[in-house]
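Listing S7. Sequence submitted for prediction.
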Amino acid sequence: MPGYPEIAELFRLLEVEQSPFTISKEGIKALDAIVEKNEDLSQYQPFIKKALAVRILQKSKNFFRNLKFTTLSRLLSFYKQEKGKENWA
């Protein structure tokens, strides 16, 4: 979409970025910026968060030999249960 460089950044993070830390940190920033620019796109936010979480888990598998749950929790801190909604449905 023209005028949304954050969408290109989000795509790059999901498809190219290797570091789960970068995906976690920059992905949610890009997603929040997209929704801030156009509130109509907020309907896609839960699905994109799921995609970010899955990609972080996939990259963590390749990035770490051992992974503590505290580290994983930090990586997925943006993915909190929203009141009244199921995240994994």
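Caption to Listing S7: primary sequence and predicted structure tokens for the chain studied. The first helix runs from residue 5 to 15. Residues 5-75 form one domain.
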